[in-house]
């Protein structure tokens, strides 16, 4: 039944204006003491015009953001199999401990003697990451995965500079996430793409042919972006080392192997770890993340400041490049000491799971993905044969001649109450569908998702392309005009008169 | 003079010592709705096959290469306000820039319309 | 294990569907010997109660700023965060969502980002702002790289009043891209003027970076500097570490700044021992396509209703790869939401009111400290932070104050470990959270320490 309402609201789906359209002068959501009105010492630069902020009371603000939240899909809402993003359950215990007095209210520039517990916590989080990866060193400061990549590649650049070598070519598989080439370019490297084999792995022969004395290293995601373990990873490591280069591993998919495979045993020199993927810190609608980087002995001396060291019973924060202990830090990546709030959450998660639980978690993640793969493989077209790791990749061959695209199918999946999978990535597969269920999903919800996808595929095959072209139907907003948004960007609210 | 075409899907129209350059109808169709065109500055020296402009659709940004050596003398400012012109009239009002050529003989290396048509059909 | 729903029976039946004998078989691509057969050498799983107890033990070893009089600033500021903020950001629909790639089911995130962008543009006095960066220091570095792209030049001039960590991050980001970073050393008692940097600006200069208020707390008009930059074709970047300040002082946009960026932590966010924070980044309409980071824009949906989408994403790394404007993927989503909610509660009156309250508290604190023998406030102007010259090394004084239960500021020697001439200077910040009693306790403790 379809009808319009007077308000535009539809039951629990409420329309909501911008705060700028709701404000009234004189309203406020805070009660403050009245300023005494002393003579200011602002250097004569006292603000003399309005900022242009709307006035709202507290109940209005609460209602506004509550209504906005109801237009969002999160992991708490339902199945969220967004490939390569590891949308696992975010435990509330993590949130609780991150807000504890003595943690949340610590200032980054407090004297060391007043933050021994904080430094111990960072050291403890680092210890877990070192044992899980088998690596000798870790830099905790990178703000997110992309900055972790920058950290790793800068360390490689610094190590090459220290060797007095002008190697500038970085080998990157064509299936790599776009951040890899962007990061390499930011470190002054040129990117040379390595082709994939027909089974979705690095083409070892092509890789070997590209090695030379100008090669700085390889950036390889393992498990890779096709959801597959790189069988030849050790050979790749040996070859790149023999050629005088370094092995950067993109750890975006670490969740598949935590507690089962130690990256150190694969010959890597550096790897970032997305705490917001593997270690359950919330994605928060796109951040904040955290991307610690583990290092081999060859790169460890070049890790950036600041870092924590243990001196007897005390913990010490090394904040200057001068205080080096023989180290040669390449610089500083962040204003302060890293994403402490995320270390607390990640440590809370790691302690909760323990060594046994983490191993079970990665196993369940891989089991769930392979189960989903098994359930869908007859109807959807599997990109590469064999078992997958923590995510299953399909191409759009199964949609050929239906007039339905990967995007259309995804939009119809939204109406079924699921967040769609990752689409059109990795680029090596035509019309890619990358599905990552994670270990925190029940068999029942995976079954429900698979049943829904299979029903939609049957509908597509029945020739109802028009239905898909117009999906989704049941969301607060339907397909949005991205072309109009990009041609004439409107990036802020402006008052009518302006 | 009749239009000439490059393998990178640019067209060139050469008249009175100035070459007008744009992207072909085939190129705009493959790119989809164009949302922005980054044009070269007037006075910029271009090298054949080097970067000259960037054309953006919602989902892709593609480099436009200089089909010939030369210096930019004019950029189509109309595209700043109305990038859709590239979709609507790719081989006329939707031109990108004009350049003075350093070597007219390079024109001979480009395809004529019939050859370009064959080239596109072979893709 | 409470986070793992699969039962033993589930696992058995799933393996059967897959056609595998064991989970280990699914790992058959792992090279010989690299697959562990036992858990690694770390403690085994714990219940909520035990984890909470462990974490509380660590927390108890710290001296939290909420538990003692605290006057710490230098780039991070303690303010009162209304209870509403933390409630909203813990709603699962915000907390557990991802980057809004599917706008039909992410209008909540997208609309607040649009509101966030408008708030940031408003307080900085700029045309547009992005959906946030990682923190103030990385925003500064990205601003310099953006200026280099926009001007096609390779030299950045940094003012001596710029926070040294911001300078270090900027130098780190520039070191491998052939960008020259020039600048002057700052000093709290030597007034930095536009002329200080004038002779460094030349035809190759992409940008000049100044901080406002500067790292020593001083407030200066940068209109002349903007003119000097523009005369040479360079951009003026104005950096800030205290977003609350613009409720009390003129916006950097009013000087003619081309990029304004800095730290947004002080609105809506806890101190968190340095992170996560939220970088704010604003610029002019003219430069918007050079701007790094995510952007949310307004559009309409299929039914003609207003909605929001991520836009201009072709600048980003997943499309442009090695030609991207920056390698940054995410923003500081949840921190920007905290900022937006706090800002919405403040409104015009609240934002300007709390800013003046900060300034007045700082004025009171400055007067109290100035009256202490052996302590002298050196600033003529300041917002909520100022520099004090002490008769003793500031680091020792701060340590002695800790013994009296007071977090009494940041010694400049911590920020400038190589500058012997700055050893006796202390950076003191005061906010609306500081009571008259805090100020009196601080002054009397300082008196004892300096006696």
TrEMBL record, chain A:
* EC identifiers of the protein: 1.4.4.2
Q: Which residues form the Aminotransferase class V domain?
A: 164-284
The segment(s) forming the Glycine dehydrogenase C-terminal domain are 362-460
The answer, when asked if Oxidoreductase is one of the entry's keywords, is yes
Report the source organism: Thalassospira xianhensis MCCC 1A02616
Classification via InterPro entries = Aminotrans_V_dom, GDC-P_C, GDC_P, PyrdxlP-dep_Trfase, PyrdxlP-dep_Trfase_major, PyrdxlP-dep_Trfase_small
A cellular component annotation (GO) from this entry: cytosol
Provide the reaction this enzyme catalyses. N(6)-[(R)-lipoyl]-L-lysyl-[glycine-cleavage complex H protein] + glycine + H(+) = N(6)-[(R)-S(8)-aminomethyldihydrolipoyl]-L-lysyl-[glycine-cleavage complex H protein] + CO2
Name recorded for this polypeptide: glycine dehydrogenase (aminomethyl-transferring)
Q: What does this protein do?
A: The glycine cleavage system catalyzes the degradation of glycine. The P protein binds the alpha-amino group of glycine through its pyridoxal phosphate cofactor; CO(2) is released and the remaining methylamine moiety is then transferred to the lipoamide cofactor of the H protein.
UniProtKB/TrEMBL annotation, chain B:
From which organism does this entry originate? Thalassospira xianhensis MCCC 1A02616
What the entry lists under InterPro entries is as follows: 2-oxoA_DH_lipoyl-BS, Biotin_lipoyl, GCV_H, GCV_H/Fam206, GCV_H_sub, Single_hybrid_motif
Q: Which PROSITE patterns match?
A: BIOTINYL_LIPOYL (PS50968), LIPOYL (PS00189)
Described function? The glycine cleavage system catalyzes the degradation of glycine. The H protein shuttles the methylamine group of glycine from the P protein to the T protein.
Q: Which UniProt keywords apply?
A: Lipoyl
Give me any GO biological process, just one: glycine decarboxylation via glycine cleavage system
Q: Which residues carry this modification: N6-lipoyllysine?
A: 59
Ranges for the Lipoyl-binding domain? 18-100
Its cellular-component GO annotations read: cytoplasm; glycine cleavage complex
**Can you tell me which family this protein belongs to?**
Belongs to the GcvH family.
Note the SUPFAM superfamilies from the entry.
Single hybrid motif
Q: Does the keyword DNA repair apply?
A: no
Cofactor(s), by name: (R)-lipoate
Q: What is this protein called?
A: Glycine cleavage system H protein
How does this protein assemble? Answer: The glycine cleavage system is composed of four proteins: P, T, L and H.
Write down the superkingdom of origin.
Answer: Bacteria
Q: Which CDD domains match?
A: GCS_H
The record's cofactor note says: Binds 1 lipoyl cofactor covalently.
From TrEMBL, chain C:
Report if keyword Transcription is assigned.
no
Q: Which reaction does it catalyse?
A: N(6)-[(R)-lipoyl]-L-lysyl-[glycine-cleavage complex H protein] + glycine + H(+) = N(6)-[(R)-S(8)-aminomethyldihydrolipoyl]-L-lysyl-[glycine-cleavage complex H protein] + CO2
Keyword Oxidoreductase attached: yes
The GO terms this record gives for MF are: glycine dehydrogenase (decarboxylating) activity
Source taxon at top rank: Bacteria
Q: What class of enzyme is it?
A: oxidoreductase
Q: By what name is this protein known?
A: Probable glycine dehydrogenase (decarboxylating) subunit 1
What is the protein's species of origin? Thalassospira xianhensis MCCC 1A02616
What lineage is this protein's organism placed in?
A: Bacteria, Pseudomonadati, Pseudomonadota, Alphaproteobacteria, Rhodospirillales
Name the gene behind this protein: gcvPA
């Amino acid at each position: 039944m379809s009808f319009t309402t007077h308000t535009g609201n539809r039951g629990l789906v409420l329309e909501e204006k911008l705060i700028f359209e709701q404000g009234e002068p004189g309203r406020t959501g805070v009660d403050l003491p009245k300023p005494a009105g002393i003579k200011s010492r602002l250097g004569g630069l006292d603000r003399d015009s309005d900022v242009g902020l709307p006035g709202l009371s507290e109940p209005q603000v609460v209602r506004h953001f509550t209504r906005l939240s109801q237009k969002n899909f999160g992991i708490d809402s339902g199945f969220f199999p967004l490939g390569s993003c590891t949308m696992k359950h975010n435990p509330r215990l993590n949130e609780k401990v991150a807000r504890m007095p003595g943690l949340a209210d610590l200032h980054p520039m407090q004297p060391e003697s007043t933050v021994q517990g904080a430094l111990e916590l960072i050291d403890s989080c680092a210890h877990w990451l070192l044992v899980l990866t088998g690596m000798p060193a870790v830099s905790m400061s990178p703000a997110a995965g992309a900055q972790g990549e920058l950290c790793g590649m800068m360390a490689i650049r610094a190590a090459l500079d220290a060797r007095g070598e002008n190697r500038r070519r970085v080998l990157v598989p064509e299936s790599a996430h776009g951040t890899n080439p962007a990061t390499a370019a930011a470190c002054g490297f040129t990117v040379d793409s390595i082709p994939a084999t027909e089974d979705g792995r690095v083409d070892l022969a092509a890789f070997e042919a590209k090695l030379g004395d100008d090669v700085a290293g390889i950036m390889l995601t393992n498990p890779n972006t096709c959801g597959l373990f790189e069988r030849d990873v050790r050979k790749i490591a040996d070859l790149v080392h023999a050629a005088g280069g370094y092995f950067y591993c993109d750890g975006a998919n670490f969740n598949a192997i935590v507690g089962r495979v130690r990256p150190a045993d694969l010959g890597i020199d550096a790897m970032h770890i997305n705490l917001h993927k593997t270690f359950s810190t919330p994605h928060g609608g796109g951040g904040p993340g955290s991307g610690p980087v583990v290092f081999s002995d060859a790169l460890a001396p070049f890790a950036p400041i600041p870092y924590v060291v243990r001196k007897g019973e005390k913990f010490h924060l090394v904040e200057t490049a001068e205080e080096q202990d023989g180290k040669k830090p390449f610089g500083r990546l962040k204003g302060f000491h890293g994403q402490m709030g995320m270390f607390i959450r990640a440590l809370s998660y790691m302690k909760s799971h323990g060594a046994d639980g983490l191993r079970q978690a990665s196993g369940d993640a891989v089991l769930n993905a392979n189960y989903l793969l098994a359930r869908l493989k007859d109807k959807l077209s599997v990109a590469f044969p064999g078992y997958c790791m923590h995510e299953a990749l399909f191409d759009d061959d199964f949609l050929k001649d239906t007039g339905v695209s990967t995007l259309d199918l995804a939009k119809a999946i939204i109406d079924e109450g699921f967040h769609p999978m990752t689409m059109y990535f990795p680029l090596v597969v035509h019309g890619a569908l990358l599905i990552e269920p994670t270990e925190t999903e029940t068999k029942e919800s995976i079954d429900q998702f698979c049943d829904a996808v299979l029903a939609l595929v049957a509908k597509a095959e029945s020739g109802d392309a028009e239905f898909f072209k117009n999906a989704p139907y049941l969301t607060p907003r339907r397909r949005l005009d991205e072309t109009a948004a990009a041609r004439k960007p409107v990036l802020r609210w402006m008052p009518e008169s302006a | 003079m009749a239009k000439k075409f490059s393998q990178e899907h640019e067209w060139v129209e050469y008249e009175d010592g100035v070459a007008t350059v744009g992207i072909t109808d085939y190129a705009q169709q493959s790119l989809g709705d164009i949302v922005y065109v980054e044009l070269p500055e007037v006075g910029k020296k271009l090298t054949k096959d080097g970067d000259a402009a960037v054309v953006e659709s919602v989902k892709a940004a593609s480099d436009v290469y200089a089909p010939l050596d030369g210096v930019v003398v004019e950029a189509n400012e109309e595209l700043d306000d109305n990038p859709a012109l590239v979709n609507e009239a790719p081989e006329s009002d939707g031109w990108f820039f004009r350049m003075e050529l350093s070597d007219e003989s390079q024109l001979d290396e480009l395809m004529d319309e019939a050859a370009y048509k064959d080239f596109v059909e072979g893709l | 294990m409470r986070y793992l729903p699969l039962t033993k029976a589930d696992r058995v039946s799933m393996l059967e569907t897959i056609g595998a004998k064991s989970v280990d078989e699914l790992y058959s691509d792992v090279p010989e010997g690299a697959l562990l057969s036992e858990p690694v050498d770390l403690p085994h799983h714990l219940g909520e109660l035990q984890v909470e107890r462990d974490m509380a033990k660590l927390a108890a070893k710290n001296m939290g700023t909420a538990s003692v009089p605290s006057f710490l600033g230098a780039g991070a500021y303690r303010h009162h965060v209304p209870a509403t903020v933390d409630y909203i950001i813990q709603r699962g629909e915000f907390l557990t969502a991802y980057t809004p790639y599917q706008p039909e089911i992410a209008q909540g995130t997208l609309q607040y980002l649009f509101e966030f962008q408008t708030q940031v543009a408003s307080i900085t006095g700029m045309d547009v702002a992005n959906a946030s960066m990682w923190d103030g220091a990385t925003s500064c570095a990205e601003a310099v790289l953006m200026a280099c792209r926009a001007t096609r030049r390779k030299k950045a001039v940094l003012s001596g009043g710029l926070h040294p960590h911001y300078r270090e991050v900027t130098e780190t980001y520039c070191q491998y891209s052939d960008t020259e970073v020039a600048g002057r050393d700052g000093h709290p008692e030597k007034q930095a003027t536009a002329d200080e940097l004038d002779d460094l600006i030349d035809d190759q200069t992409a940008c000049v970076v100044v901080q406002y208020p500067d790292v020593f707390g001083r407030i200066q008009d940068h209109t002349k500097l903007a003119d000097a930059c523009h005369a040479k074709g360079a951009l003026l970047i104005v950096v800030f570490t205290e977003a609350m300040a613009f409720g009390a002082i003129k916006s950097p946009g009013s000087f003619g700044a081309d990029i304004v960026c800095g730290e947004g932590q002080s609105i809506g966010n806890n101190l968190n021992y340095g992170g996560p924070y939220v970088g704010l980044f604003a610029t002019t309409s003219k430069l918007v396509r050079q701007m790094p980071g995510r952007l949310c824009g307004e559009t309409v949906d299929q039914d003609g209703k207003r909605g929001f989408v991520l836009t201009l994403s072709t600048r980003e790394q997943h499309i442009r790869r090695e030609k991207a404007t920056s390698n940054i993927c995410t923003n500081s989503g949840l921190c920007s939401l905290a900022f937006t909610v706090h800002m919405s509660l403040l409104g015009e009156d609240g934002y300007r009111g709390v800013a003046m309250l900060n300034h007045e508290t700082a004025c009171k604190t400055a007067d109290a400290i100035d009256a202490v023998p052996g302590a002298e406030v050196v600033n003529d102007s300041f917002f909520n932070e100022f520099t004090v010259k002490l008769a003793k090394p500031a680091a020792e004084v701060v340590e002695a104050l800790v013994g009296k239960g007071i977090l009494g500021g940041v010694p400049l020697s911590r920020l400038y470990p190589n500058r012997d001439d700055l050893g006796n200077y202390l950076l003191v910040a005061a906010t609306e959270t500081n009571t008259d009693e805090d100020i009196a306790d601080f002054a009397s403790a300082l008196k004892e320490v300096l006696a």
